[in-house]
Each structure stands twice: as C-alpha cells, then as structure tokens.
Amino acid sequence: MSSVTMTVNGKSVSADVEDRTLLVDFIRGNAGLTGTHVGCDTSQCGACLVLMDGRAVKSCTMLAAQADGAEVVTIEGVASGDQLHPVQAAFKDNHGLQCGFCTPGMIISAVDMINRCGPNLDEATIRHELDGNICRCTGYHNIVKAIKAAADEMSGTAAAAE
Ligand code: FES
Ligand code: FES
Fold first, then answer.
1. Measured between alpha carbons, how far is 93 from 129 in angstroms, rounded to an integer?
2. Which protein residues touch ligand 2 with a CB less than 6 Å away?
3. How many Å apart are CA 55 and CA 12, to the nearest integer?
4. Which residues contact residue 156 at a Cβ distance below 8 angstroms, ignoring those fewer than 6 apart?
5. How many Å lie between the centroid of ligand 1 and the Cα of residue 132?
6. Helix (H/G/I), strand (E/B), else coil: 48
7. Using CB atoms within 10 A of its CB, is residue 104 exposed (0-12), middle (13-18) or buried (19+)?
8. Less Cβ around it within 10 Å: N or C end of the chain?
9. Are 34 and 73 in contact (CB under 8 A)?
10. Would you give per-residue pLDDT tens digits along the chain (162 residues)?
11. 18-22 own/partner pairs: CB under 8 Å, 24+ apart
C-alpha cells in the first residue's frame, strides 16, 4: 500500500491505495471525479487526460503514487465557477460534442496545447497535437474548429476581427 496525497482541482485528496493503483482510478474512485474517462487499454485514446503540474498526462498510464504531491486539474476543474473555460465554450458553440465521451480529454489536450504552443494555432498544428486523442464518433472537424475558435478567442484575434 502507498499513502498518496495530491491536490485535485484545488482540494487536497489523500488515500491509502494499492501500489498498482492508476492515477485515473484514484481520480475516479478516491477523488470521486468521474469526468475523466477510460476509453482504451492501450494508452492511445486520451480520454483520461488530466493536467498534472500544468502539463497534460494520460492518467491511465501512470500510477497514483507517481502523482503524490502533485497539483492535478481534471475536466471538473477547468471552468472558473459558472464561467466555462473558453475551450469548453468553443466546443459548445462549434458542435464539437457528439456522444461526449472523448470530450474531457479533448478539452484538456486543447488547454495544454494552447498553454504550450501559444494561442496562435493553425489547423495543421491542432491536428498534429491531437494525435494522442481518439474520438470514436470520428467528428474531428468540429473539434478542430472549436479549438481554433478558442485559440483565436484567447489570442484576441476573434475580438479584433469583429
Ligand atoms: S484511457 Fe488513457 S489513453 Fe485511453
Ligand atoms: S464525441 Fe463521441 S467519442 Fe468523441
């Protein structure tokens, strides 16, 4: 057993867990946050993405014990109170949601790519950066459009173009 403590969406969560416990299972089972999904057994789909110390990680691919002491942000922690994150709002406005199963991971991936690459994203970069996310509804077009819209919004391009 390992004693694990991490901050999840600003709240401290502690538990004694089996050493083999995955971060995604800690988030869903111990923190009670079920927006982080498991969509594969092969570390390919990205449905389980969370931000750990500001960087996107596949939470099915690491142990909870490896996140001991970390700051984790899940899809439930992306909005500011009632105010959707610009990426969340853009998914809604651009029909980037279909069944929604991949959406938490897509949104975390988008937040991470905008943080790393800056808001001036072109479509080719967005498609390349989404390489680790699978949408089984295969609706990538509107997802890419939503991320581009969010990036433009965050860079001020959208406002400047109006
Ligand atoms: S559940 Fe983690 S990559 Fe698919
Ligand atoms: S919206 Fe259904 S898996 Fe992507």
1. 21
2. 98-103, 135-137, 139
3. 19
4. none
5. 9
6. coil
7. buried
8. C
9. no
10. 999 999 999 999 999 999 999 999 999 999 999 999 999 989 999 999 999 999 999 999 999 999 999 999 999 999 999 999 999 999 999 999 999 999 999 999 999 999 999 989 999 999 999 999 999 998 899 999 999 999 999 988 765 555
11. 19/63, 19/65, 20/63, 21/63, 21/64, 21/65, 22/59, 22/60, 22/61, 22/62, 22/63, 22/64
Q: Which atom of ligand 1 sits closest to the CA of residue 40? A: 4
The pTM for the full model equals 0.95
Q: Which two tokens stand for residue 51?
A: 């931000």
Q: What residue owns the CA closest to ligand 2's atom 4?
A: 135
Pick from 106, 112, 73: nearest CA to 88: 106
Which amino acid is it at 141? Answer: H
Are 78 and 9 a contacting pair, CB within 8 Å?
A: no
Instruction: Tally the residues of the chain.
Output: 162
Using CA atoms, how far apart are residues 3 and 94, in angstroms rounded to an integer?
Answer: 43
DSSP assigned state of 47? T
